[in-house]
Every structure is written in structure tokens, then in C-alpha cells.
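We close this part of the discussion by returning to an individual protein. The sequence in question and its C-alpha cells are set out directly beneath this paragraph:
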Amino acid sequence: MNVLIWIKNVVILLLSLFFLIIGVNTLWGSYSLKNPLEFVMYFFSASLLILVCIVGIIYFFSRFFIKIKPDGFDNDETP
């Protein structure tokens, strides 16, 4: 069961990194657009994509470094 949790967390990290690269490319490409309305749409969609990807990366590292709470209970175990 522990291996499945690690596989899930690594998949989340890899997908977050992949879409983070796409988001940064979209953000960078939005600056070359001539139409201001298209620029705003691309800029905010890329910003949202980057924000969601950063949350996925933070999720992975929080699961990696936070194992047991100070009260002694493990967060990964289900009752």
C-alpha cells in the first residue's frame, strides 16, 4: 500500500512539472501577441496553470517531508 502512495505522489509531481513547463511557455508566448484581449486571456490562463502546478509540487513535498504529526499519529493511514 505504501508503494501505491509513492507512485501516486511521483505521478502528481511529474504531471505538475510537465504542465508547469507548458504554463511558462504559454506565459512567455503571450507577450508576443498583438491583440490586447488575446494577451489578457493567455496571460491569466497561463498564470492559473502555473498556480495549480505549484500547488501540486507543494503537495508532493509536503507529503515527502511531513510524515508524523507531533501527537504521534500517521497522516497516511486510513482507519
